[in-house]
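Dear colleague,

As promised, here are the two records you asked about, laid out in our usual form so they can be pasted straight into your sheet.

NAME FIELD: protein one
SEQUENCE, THEN STRUCTURE:
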Amino acid sequence: MELRPLRLEPGDDLRRALEAACAESGTAAFVVSGIGSLTRARLRLAAANGETELSGPLEILTLAGSLSADGAHLHMSVADAQGRVCGGHVGYGNQVRTTAEVLVAVLPDWQLTREVDAATGYKELVIRPTSST
C-alpha cells in the first residue's frame, strides 16, 4: 500500500478530481480521509432516489470510499455555517471552495471493479488480486 496526499483546488469537482487521479495512476485505491470546504454539495441521502443539493459554504467533516477504473463510491459528511451536519453518497457537482485535502491509499496489488450483484441489484465492489499477487 502506498499513501498519496492530494490537494484539490478551488472550483474542482470533488468526485471527478478523485476519479481522474485514480485513472491517471491506473490503480485501485481507497480514500482514507478528507477535509476541506465546498461551495455546494450534492449528496444522495440514505435510500433516496435522487440527490440533494446543499448550498455553501460547507466544511467537509469526513470523506471516505473506494476508487476504481469503474468510478468512485464515496461517502461524505458536511457541516454548514450553523453547524448542521448532513451526509450521504457523493455525487458529481461537489465544488471545492478553498481546498480539499485528501489522503488516498493506493493498492497496487489489487484490482477493484464494480459489477451488478444479484442480491442487491446494484453495482457492488468486486475485489481481485492482480496477477503479481
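NAME FIELD: protein two
SEQUENCE, THEN STRUCTURE:
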Amino acid sequence: MLGLGEHIPYLISMSLMVSGVDTFIQARRPFGIGIGLICVQGTSFAFLSSVLAAGFVAKGKDSGCY
C-alpha cells in the first residue's frame, strides 16, 4: 500500500529488536521500570494499522482515520 516492499524486512527486524529491549527492561528494572522477572516480550502485527495510518498521513493521502 505504501510502497515499502523492500523495507518490510527492516520493519519486522526492528519490531523483534524492540521486543528484545523490552524483555531486558522487564528483567533488569532500570530506573524502577519493569517487574524484575524474565517476562519475554513478543511482537505481533497489531502495530501495522498504526504504521499504515502514519504512512498515509506522511504521504498526504487519505488514511480514512480521523
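A couple of things worth noting about protein two: Helices lie at 8-28, 48-59. The mean pLDDT is 78.

Best,
R.
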